[in-house]
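// run 5 | inverse folding | seed 20
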C-alpha cells in the first residue's frame, strides 16, 4: 500500500520518527487487546473509530457480530476508500464509514440506527493529542451527554514527551509539506484529569503504553531502557474510561 502513495517517506524512516514506528505497532496491539476484551463481554456492540485514517482494527478484532463505524474528514475518507477499501479489504455490511469531522455532531444522527440498544465503545488511536484541550473537552462532554455509560479508549502523552515529539515533528513539517495540525496540542498525564470535564467518568484501565509489551530476548539495551523510563514517568499511556 505504501508503494502506491506518491509521497517521500524518507523523513520518517530515520531518527526520532523511526523509533515511533515500533511504538505505533505496540499502540495497535494495546487497542486490539482492549477492544477484544470489550467484545467478549458485549457481543452486541458498536465500535466508533474516531479519526480512523487508514486504520484496519476492525479486520483484526471482528468476532462476527460487532458493528463498526469509522469517522474521519472527507479527504481522508477518500484516501481510505482508494487505498484500503478498493485494493485490500472487501466490503462488510457491518462496517460504516462517515466522511465528517468528529466535531460535526450530525454524525450522531447518521449512526443512530446502528447504536440503538447496543453497547458503545469509542476509540481514538493517535488522534486526541492533536486537538486543542477545549476541543477535547467539547467532545467528551458531548459523548457523555449523548451516550451515557459508553466506553472510550485512547492514548495520551504527558507534557515532556509531547514537547520532545513536537521538536522533531516541526523539523519534518518544515521539509515535508505537512501542516501545523500534526503538532501535539493536548497532553494528559493521568486519566483522573478528565473529571474536570465529566465528573462521573469511571476509570476502567490506565497503564503505560509499553508496559504490556511481551518480553523479547532480542530487545537491545536502549529499547529496554525506553520501556522502563516511559513506564516509570508515565510519559505515554493507554486510557480506558466509561462515561
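// decoded
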Amino acid at each position: 500500500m505504501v508503494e502506491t502513495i506518491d509521497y517521500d517517506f524518507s523523513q520518517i524512516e530515520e531518527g526520532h520518527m523511526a523509533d515511533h514506528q515500533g511504538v505505533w505497532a505496540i499502540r495497535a496491539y494495546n487497542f486490539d487487546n482492549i477492544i477484544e476484551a470489550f467484545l467478549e463481554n458485549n457481543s452486541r456492540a458498536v465500535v466508533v473509530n474516531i479519526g480512523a485514517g487508514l486504520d484496519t482494527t476492525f479486520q483484526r478484532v471482528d468476532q462476527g457480530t460487532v458493528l463498526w463505524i469509522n469517522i474521519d474528514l472527507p479527504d481522508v475518507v477518500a484516501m481510505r476508500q482508494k487505498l484500503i477499501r478498493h485494493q485490500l479489504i472487501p466490503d462488510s455490511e457491518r462496517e460504516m464509514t462517515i466522511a465528517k469531522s468528529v466535531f460535526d455532531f450530525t454524525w450522531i444522527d447518521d449512526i443512530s440506527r446502528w447504536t440503538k440498544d447496543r453497547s458503545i465503545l469509542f476509540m481514538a488511536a493517535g488522534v486526541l493529542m492533536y486537538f486543542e484541550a477545549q476541543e477535547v473537552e467539547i467532545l467528551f462532554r458531548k459523548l457523555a451527554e449523548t451516550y451515557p455509560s459508553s466506553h472510550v479508549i485512547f492514548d495520551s502523552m504527558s507534557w515532556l514527551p509531547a514537547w520532545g515529539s513536537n521538536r522533531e515533528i516541526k523539523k519534518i513539517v518544515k521539509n515535508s509539506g505537512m501542516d501545523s495540525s500534526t503538532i501535539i496540542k493536548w497532553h494528559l498525564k493521568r486519566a483522573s484529569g478528565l473529571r474536570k470535564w465529566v465528573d462521573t467518568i469511571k476509570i476502567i484501565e490506565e497503564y503505560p503504553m509499553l508496559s504490556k509489551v511481551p518480553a523479547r530476548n532480542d530487545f537491545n539495551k536502549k529499547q529496554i531502557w525506553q520501556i522502563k523510563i516511559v513506564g516509570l514517568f508515565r510519559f505515554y499511556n493507554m486510557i480506558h474510561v466509561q462515561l
